[in-house]
TrEMBL record:
Keywords: Hydrolase, Magnesium, Metal-binding
A biological process term (GO) from this entry: trehalose biosynthetic process
Catalytic activity entry: alpha,alpha-trehalose 6-phosphate + H2O = alpha,alpha-trehalose + phosphate
Species of the source: Paramagnetospirillum caucaseum
Cofactor(s) required for function per UniProt: Mg(2+)
Any GO molecular function: metal ion binding
Lineage: Bacteria, Pseudomonadati, Pseudomonadota, Alphaproteobacteria, Rhodospirillales
Described purpose of this protein according to its UniProt entry: Removes the phosphate from trehalose 6-phosphate to produce free trehalose.
Keyword check for Metal-binding: yes
Domain of life: Bacteria
Stated name of the protein: Trehalose 6-phosphate phosphatase
Length: 246
C-alpha cells in the first residue's frame, strides 16, 4: 500500500471503527478516535468520509459534524458542508403496518431513520426469520421504490437503487476525492458494494472481523486492529500525534 498521501479514506462505523453494541446507541467512542480521524482528514486534504447504515443525524451524535459522511447506506450524504437528504419514499400506512407487526415480536426494535426503516433484532436473535419475512413483505408492496438490505441482526428497507458502493463512486467524481485512490473499510454484508466499488477503481478494500466470504483484498480481525492501523497511517502521513491511541 504505497503512496498513501494520495488516498481517499472511506470507513464504515459500527463493527469497523467501533466495537458492536447490543443497540445502536450503546456504542462507545474510544478516547482519541475523533482526534485521530480529524488528523487523518487534514493529512488527506479532506478526503475522508464515514460511510454508514446510520442516518446522518445518528452519525453526527457520535462524531459531531466533523467530516464528510454518507448515511443510510448511500441514500443521504454530507459533502463539503452541503447535505443531501431525499424525502422518505414510504407512506405512514406502511410504517404503521410494520410497527403493528413489530409489536408482536418481543425484543425487535423499529428505527425510523430519515430515509430508511431498520428492524433491529440483535437483542432477540430468535426473531430473525420473522423479521426477514416482515421486511420482505414490506418491500414487496412496491419493489420499484423499496430495496432490502440485510446486515448483522438488522433488516433495513431503503429506497431502491442505493448502496454504499454507489455513494463512494459519487464522492470519487468530485473534489477533494477525485483523482485519489479510494480505500474503504467495512465489516458487514452491506459493505460488499463498497468493496466492489473501490476494487473497480484500483483502490484498496479492507474487511474487518470474521467473514467466510468477502470481496475485500485485506482483512483485520476486529475494530481495535482497524484503529491501530489508522493510528499507524496517521503517523506515516505526518499527522498530529498529540492524541491517545484509541
Ligand atoms: Mg458496520
Amino acid at each position: 500500500m504505497a503512496d498513501r498521501t494520495n488516498w481517499a479514506l472511506f470507513m464504515d462505523i459500527d463493527g469497523t471503527l467501533l466495537d458492536l453494541a447490543p443497540t445502536p446507541d450503546g456504542v462507545i467512542i474510544p478516547k482519541g478516535l475523533p482526534q485521530l480521524l480529524d488528523s487523518l482528514a487534514r493529512a488527506l486534504g479532506g478526503a475522508l468520509a464515514l460511510v454508514s447504515g446510520r442516518s446522518l443525524d445518528s452519525i453526527d451524535r457520535l462524531f459531531p459534524g466533523l467530516w464528510d459522511a454518507v448515511g443510510c447506506h448511500g441514500t443521504e450524504w454530507r459533502l463539503g458542508g452541503q447535505t443531501f437528504t431525499p424525502q422518505p419514499s414510504w407512506s405512514d400506512g406502511l410504517v404503521a403496518g410494520i410497527e403493528a407487526a413489530r409489536r408482536r415480536l418481543p425484543g425487535v426494535v423499529l428505527e425510523r431513520k430519515s430515509v430508511s426503516l431498520a428492524l433491529h433484532f440483535r437483542a432477540a436473535p430468535e426473531q430473525g426469520a420473522a423479521v426477514r419475512a416482515l421486511a420482505e413483505a414490506a418491500v414487496a408492496t412496491d419493489p420499484r421504490r423499496f430495496g432490502l438490505l440485510e446486515g448483522k441482526s438488522v433488516m433495513e428497507i431503503i429506497p431502491a437503487g442505493n448502496s454504499k458502493g454507489s455513494a463512494i463512486e459519487r464522492f470519487m467524481r468530485v473534489p477533494p476525492y477525485a483523482g485519489r485512490r479510494p480505500v474503504f473499510a467495512g465489516d458487514d454484508v452491506t459493505d460488499e458494494s463498497g468493496f466492489t466499488a473501490v476494487n473497480g477503481m484500483g483502490g484498496h478494500s479492507i474487511h474487518v472481523g470474521d467473514s467466510p466470504v468477502s470481496k475485500a483484498h485485506f482483512c483485520f480481525p476486529d475494530p481495535l486492529a482497524m484503529r491501530h492501523w489508522l493510528y499507524g497511517l496517521n503517523n506515516a502521513l505526518g499527522g498530529d500525534q498529540d492524541h491517545e491511541h484509541p
